[in-house]
DNA sequence: TTCGATGCAAACACTTTGCATTGGC
DNA sequence: GCCAATGCAAAGTGTTTGCATCGAA
């Protein structure tokens, strides 16, 4: 699970003239420990690190998240529900979509070749260069669906 | 183009015990005048109304956007690029997706039955009650693709 | 007339930034 | 030792809220 990406990180940072600081390692380590399917906000990262022995200032967390995102080690999710969230980037990222419960925020991931297809053809249609087709399906998870029953709002 | 929705609005508001105020009319009128495919932020709405003769406080714009969204007259987009955006809700909203240029923010819309399919089956798989599958494809529009050429970042 | 809606300004949540200090290379 | 990275606190965004006043029904 917790693959030692440190080697990659070291190389990636080095290759781009970036320094390998303990803070950066801690942040990336956290994402690796947490697993690929998790969506952490800057606050989450900050808190989790405090919980451990380590400590990284919130400002640095933000800076590091941006850096790692730029380097494609992390990926930013577009779930506007209260702040940006980040997750570990993986190889099959292009076909990795989210189902999000609008009531409780629970998220699930799924893959779908059709979506990949659809995104690609849409990009082609408008002459766009495709980066990442990302389907975000909004809905109600089983628990919340029961609570809210038939009535919306 | 600018269908007189005022009748519907009046009914909708009335039916839910809401008042039909000039401010609410102005906001909805703006969306109608602008057209269904446009994505306006609260700031946009505020400014555009100032440009006209009318004036609605920013706080009221926010309150109205939320109200109209709740009533399904508007729909909130999940394009986190600097603030929430809203657009006029239409019937075929469920099959209405966005292609967004990460460089300049230009957005295009497209439809795709496959996406609808994929969203529905994902929802089913996890026991979610589907609300709206919305594909957001991130990419580079023709102009920006030329500028940025091969090099990312 | 009544109670919800508005306007204003203060409060909020999240994110970025200036600057002195620290520390990776 | 140099220059990038950090920590802190202050400043920015975008959005919400408390409260007195206004006005739709």
Question: How would you describe the overall organization of this protein?
Answer:
- 2 copies of one chain form a homodimer.
- Chain A is α+β, with helices and mostly antiparallel strands.
- Chain A folds into 2 domains: 1-90, Arc Repressor Mutant, subunit A (Orthogonal Bundle); 95-153, 2-Layer Sandwich (Dna Ligase, domain 1).
- In chain A, 44% of the residues lie in helices and 19% in strands.
- Chain A contains 6 helices and 5 strands; from the N terminus they run ααααββββαβα.
- In chain A, the strands form 2 sheets. Chain A has a 3-stranded mixed beta sheet with strand order 4-3-5.
- In chain A, a hairpin with a 5-residue loop joins strand 3 and strand 4.
- In chain A, helix 3 packs across helix 4.
- The longest helix of chain A has 14 residues, at 113-126.
- Chain A is flat.
- Mean pLDDT of chain A is 81; it is low at 1-6.
- Chains A and B meet through strand 3, helix 5 and strand 5 of A and strand 3, helix 5 and strand 5 of B.
Provide the descriptors you would attach to this structure in a database record.
alpha+beta; Dna Ligase, domain 1; homodimer; Arc Repressor Mutant, subunit A; flat; 153 residues; 19% strand; three-stranded mixed β-sheet; 44% helix; 6 helices; two-stranded antiparallel sheet; DNA-binding
């Amino acid at each position: 699970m917790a693959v030692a990406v440190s080697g990659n990180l070291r190389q990636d940072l080095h290759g781009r003239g970036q320094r390998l600081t303990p803070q950066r390692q801690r942040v990336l380590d956290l994402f690796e420990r947490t697993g690929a399917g998790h969506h952490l906000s800057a606050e989450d990262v900050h808190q989790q690190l405090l919980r451990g022995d380590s400590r990284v200032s919130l400002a640095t967390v933000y800076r590091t998240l941006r850096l790692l995102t730029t380097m494609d080690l992390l990926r930013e999710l577009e779930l506007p529900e209260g702040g940006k969230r980040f997750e570990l980037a993986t190889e099959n990222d292009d076909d990795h979509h989210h189902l999000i419960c609008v009531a409780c925020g629970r998220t699930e991931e799924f893959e779908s070749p059709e979506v990949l297809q659809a995104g690609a053809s849409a990009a082609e249609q408008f002459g766009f260069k495709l980066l990442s087709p990302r389907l975000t399906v909004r809905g109600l998870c089983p628990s919340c669906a029961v609570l809210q029953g038939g009535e919306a709002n």
